[in-house]
TrEMBL record:
Domain called Helicase ATP-binding: residue spans: 140-303
The organism's place on the tree of life at top rank: Bacteria
GO molecular function, one term: ATP binding
Domain called Helicase C-terminal: residue spans: 441-610
Keyword field contains Nucleotide-binding: yes
Keyword GTP-binding set for record: no
PROSITE patterns named in the record: HELICASE_ATP_BIND_1, HELICASE_CTER
Keywords tagged on the record: ATP-binding, Helicase, Hydrolase, Nucleotide-binding
Regions annotated as coiled coil: none
A Pfam family that the UniProt record links to this protein: SNF2-rel_dom
InterPro entries registered for this protein in UniProt: Helicase_ATP-bd, Helicase_C-like, P-loop_NTPase, SNF2-like_sf, SNF2_N
Listed name of the protein: DEAD/DEAH box helicase family protein
Length: 618
């Protein structure tokens, strides 16, 4: 009688009365079982340790089939079934615990008090009550998401988790994988939260030439290791070797790992498999629909996705109302979400909309552009933004890939567009405009705010717009600086510090560069939106640079939106107003989803563009 048993969590089959050569030559073994085998020693087949519990019963049946051919019987050790049941109940228990902690069930009050006491003993800055509950949730779920809105203190909650696990489980380090612009925030937050209680020893891999050597030899004493997503491909194995049950693995801005077939996702998933504690952070959990949660759930629970969650990609892409209820029911216990109201962050002032009526020359250019580009909403969108910023850009070919990246437009069907063949009328019109009406009005607003001794952040899309503002402000002797994608991390940090100190009065930047993990709320309360797209993620994250946890009760937050109004054949048309209205619709969708304890589904880019111009296209 052969035996299917388990020892030290490794499954094995002890073969009796059968030649092992016959087993390994068997067709069923070669086609279906060999891939699960780690080694064969004498009469014992050792199975791989990473076999999912959901496959074990099928493997038992297949081995029974093979062994029965040779007139033997396979006995299954009771310990194997106990092992399967234990693993099957693991995710169900997590589901129940997650729900209970999210709902602050009174059965957890004593444990929470103990947790809070230990965290407070180790942290210099005390967490808000809701942040503490989030830290408690992430600690005891072990692998979870935190989808709290930007500016609500997700980083601090993770540090609270670290404070407890360091004291109670001897956890030694956080490995944070995220965008480069998040590194400074993590260092600053660590210092503020712990002070002298826990001295930060960080390893910042973006400033290291040989990252493999640094991870191998310089990581021993580091309690905060910072890795950018772009570096994963070259150091994946080194990270796997470093991560153990004394490590908290954090994926910050995890929405950047959204394509399940990408290289970045592959390395992230491989690293997450070996981690005991995993936290996935994002203030924008599903900007591209429910399919984004595929990677997210595989990062947290790779062994349970197919058995417990079981969401097919086709269901995630086109969910019915019943699917949406099922998806949200399954995933809610595995993430926490806090909004600013729960943390008593002062409400921002009502947005100030500044309407601008372009000159006759600008309006004529609008008519020409509309007639030329009306068949391509994406192209028309880009050209109108250029018209409002600097008409000289209209005389250049559109770099489609560049603008798709800037606007995070994912449609792959856009052809190479816009060969230059404008009429003779357009060049004189462009040359007649020294400065656009929108730029001129924005400069007046900047000057007014600076005269009131206020720091100002100006949000743009185009690098050309940023350079123009810098030149105009230099002429006006107003100290300004630019942060764009070409500014390296060290210079970026220096610019931010000068802005915070007040030696730089105006910061000019774009959301896809500076819309994550930078806190400017202590010294800046005014933001001007010169250019903006229909990307809600960019808007929310840019707003949260100055509106976030830590504002005093008497602090104000003011956003200004510059809006050009053109004269179209059927009356007034404002691209800016259409974008703004669309963004407000999306923001309300998100608010409603949070209140209903659901993850929101946002319109696609194509739907946005169609909606943007539907008035003109009629």
């Amino acid at each position: 009688m052969s035996l299917f048993t388990i020892n030290d969590e490794q499954l094995k089959i002890i073969i009796d009365h059968i030649d092992m050569k016959d087993i390994v030559k068997d067709r069923t073994y070669k086609l279906k079982l060999k891939k699960f085998v780690e080694a064969i020693n004498g009469d014992t087949i050792h199975l791989k340790k990473d076999i999912h519990y959901g496959r074990i019963k099928d493997i038992i049946k297949m081995f029974e089939k093979v062994i029965n051919k040779y007139c033997d019987v396979l006995e299954v050790d009771e310990k194997v079934y106990e092992y399967i049941n234990q693993l099957e109940s693991y995710i169900e228990k997590k589901y129940t615990i997650g729900n209970d902690i999210r709902n602050q069930d009174e059965r957890y009050f004593e444990k929470y008090k103990e947790f809070k006491s230990i965290v407070n003993q180790n942290m210099k800055r005390q967490l808000r009550e809701k942040q503490m509950w989030d830290a408690f949730f992430m600690t005891f779920i072990q692998k979870s998401g935190n989808f709290s809105v930007p500016g609500s203190g997700k980083t601090s909650s993770v540090l609270g988790m670290f404070a407890y696990l360091m004291a109670m489980k001897d956890v030694k380090r956080i490995i944070m994988i995220g965008p480069k612009n998040a590194f400074k925030s993590w260092k600053d937050e660590f210092d503020v939260c712990f002070g002298e209680n826990i001295k930060r020893v960080s390893l910042d891999l973006q400033n290291v030439k040989n990252k493999k050597i640094a991870l191998k030899y310089d990581s021993g004493n580091a309690n905060l290791i910072l890795v950018n997503y772009e570096a994963l491909e070259g150091i994946g194995n080194e990270l796997v070797d470093l991560i153990d049950d004394k490590t908290i693995l954090v994926f910050d801005e995890v929405h950047r790992v959204k394509n399940p077939n990408s290289i970045r996702a592959g390395y992230s998933l491989n690293i997450a498999k070996v981690a005991h504690y995993v936290v996935a952070l994002t203030g924008t959990p599903i900007p591209n629909g429910y399919q984004d949660i595929n990677v997210l759930l595989n990062l947290l629970y790779p062994d349970d996705y197919n058995q417990f969650f079981r969401f097919s990609m086709s269901t995630l892409k086109n969910p019915t109302e019943e699917d949406i209820l099922n998806i949200n029911d399954k995933i809610q216990p595995f993430y926490c979400r806090t909004n600013k109201k729960e943390l008593n962050v002062p409400e921002p002032n009502e947005d100030i909309i500044i309407n601008i009526f372009p000159t006759e020359a600008e309006n004529r250019l609008f008519e020409i552009l509309f007639n030329k580009h009306r068949k391509s909403s994406f192209e028309l969108f880009i050209r109108l933004l250029q018209l409002e910023s600097d008409p000289n850009m209209l005389l250049q070919t559109i770099d489609v890939e560049k603008y798709k990246k800037i606007l995070e437009y994912t449609n792959e069907d856009i052809e190479r567009i816009d060969y230059i063949d404008y009429s003779n009328e357009i060049k004189p019109l462009v040359k007649s405009i020294n400065i656009t009406s929108k730029t001129e009005r924005t400069l007046k607003l900047i000057n007014k705010l600076v005269e009131e001794n206020k720091n100002v952040i100006v949000w743009c899309i185009f690098r050309k717009s940023m350079d123009n503002f810098k030149a105009y402000l230099d002429d006006a002797e107003i100290k300004s600086e630019i942060i764009s994608g070409s500014v390296d991390s060290m210079e970026r940090e220096e610019i931010i510090e000068r802005f915070k100190e007040g030696s730089t009065k105006v910061l000019i930047t774009n959301p896809h560069t500076l819309a994550e993990s930078v806190s400017l709320h202590k010294t800046c309360h005014d933001a001007i939106y010169f250019e903006y797209s229909f990307n809600l993620v960019h808007l929310l994250q840019s707003k949260d640079r100055i509106h976030r946890l830590g504002l005093r009760e008497d602090d104000y937050t003011q956003y200004y939106f510059m809006q050009n109004i053109f004269m179209a054949p059927d009356g007034e048309f404002s691209l800016d107003r259409r974008i703004y209205d669309r963004l407000m619709q999306k923001e309300q969708l998100m608010i409603d989803a949070i209140e209903n304890h659901k993850l929101e589904i946002m319109p696609t880019n194509d739907e946005d563009l169609k909606w943007m111009f539907e008035i003109l296209m009629k």
